[in-house]
Design goal:
elongated; Glutaredoxin; Oxidized Rhodanese, domain 1; 12 strands
């Protein structure tokens, strides 16, 4: 077949519409069918897209083999993990430093973050800088790479496969949650939360005391729907409208209003950050700060956003009866799931 192709390629290519156009069509067909395709089969479908982003941003793309070679070189490059600090703390590529970038950095970069980036990389603008985030779907590494180029660094390398890609190189799979994470049937962590919107939060939650903080056991409800979010989590930001709609559904349902209360916990957020977030995003239900990530850690550090439906038990503790991870989707469908879970929990 190869000799036949060579023979065809040595013949003059006829003009379209001429008597030999059938031969030209045959030649194109054979070239398409028998041309080497090994590279295409080895290249991920998303590679062309990230290559285009890199060309536009002025940085380079590297794969797993190139990453290993870079990390083995001397002097070693700077390896920067731009995921949230709680994800970095769970696990990261050995030797990586952490400086979180997020979607809010697309158009403007905080001077303090730019200064910290310069401190991490150092004064040598020619030193290789390798940037990664979670996976090829994560936009953080591309944002950070563009800013690094803009700051004058000459060898900015993006590893788009990210942490999940690194795990795959080691023959491992990224878990959805930290081993030992709490699930249905486990007790929800006991915690105390600082009241932020004092009058409205106290009225909604049915708090009878005037202390600055309260325990979940103080809430006047049979069930709680507790959402965990981080304001730098893109998925969490997308969920605000869905959770607001779910809150309205609950409050307009006579069988649920007063019986099921809803609240959110800002993972790693300060009280003032939670107040600002609720005001800016117009969150309809109470939000509180899990500043030290105590609740988040006790739950097993699940991937955000995530929500827990919990029930008050006879000993006044709260037990998890359902867990909703990721995008909640159709709020009416979620409301149906909540009602079914509540009915099952109430069954003898």
């Amino acid at each position: 077949m190869s000799s036949y192709l060579s023979l065809l390629m040595r013949r003059p290519v006829p003009r379209l519409g001429g008597p030999g156009n059938a031969l030209a069509a045959l030649l194109l067909f054979l070239l398409a069918v028998f041309a080497p395709s090994a590279h295409a089969s080895q290249t991920p479908a998303w590679w062309a897209q990230v290559q285009s982003e890199a060309k536009h941003g002025g940085y380079q793309i590297i794969d797993g083999k190139q990453l290993k070679a870079q990390l083995a070189s001397k002097p070693a490059p700077v390896l920067l993990d731009v995921r949230p600090d709680y994800e970095y703390a769970q696990a990261h590529i050995p030797g990586a430093l952490n400086l979180e970038f997020h979607l809010g950095d697309r158009t403007t970069l905080d001077p303090a973050k730019a200064k910290r980036l310069a401190q991490l990389v150092g004064p040598d603008k020619n030193r290789p800088l390798i940037i990664y985030c979670r996976s090829f779907r994560c936009l953080r590494s591309g944002i950070a790479a563009r800013w690094a180029v803009g700051m004058g660094y000459k060898q900015v390398l993006r590893y788009p496969a990210g942490w999940h890609g690194w795990l795959a190189l080691q023959g491992r799979v990224a878990p959805n949650a930290k081993p030992g994470g709490l699930r249905a049937g486990d007790y929800f962590p006991s915690c105390r939360l600082v009241v932020l919107n004092k009058a409205s939060d106290r009225a909604y939650l049915g708090l009878t005391h005037t202390h600055p903080s309260f325990a979940l056991e103080d809430v006047a409800a049979d069930f709680l729907f507790v959402e965990l979010y981080n304001e730098l989590c893109y998925g969490c930001l997308k969920e605000v409208a869905s959770y607001n709609a779910l809150f309205e559904e609950i409050e307009s349902d006579p069988a649920l209003k007063g019986r099921l209360k809803m609240l959110g916990l800002g993972v790693g957020s300060l009280n003032r950050e939670v107040k600002r977030f609720r005001r800016q995003k117009k969150v309809a239900f109470p939000l509180f700060a899990d500043k030290g990530r105590e609740v988040f850690h006790c739950l097993g550090e699940p991937e955000l956003p995530v929500a827990y439906l919990i029930q008050r038990t006879g000993n006044r503790r709260w037990k998890i009866i359902s867990m909703l991870a990721g995008h909640i989707g159709d709020t009416k469908a979620v409301l149906g799931r909540i009602k079914a879970a509540l009915a099952a929990a109430a069954a003898p």
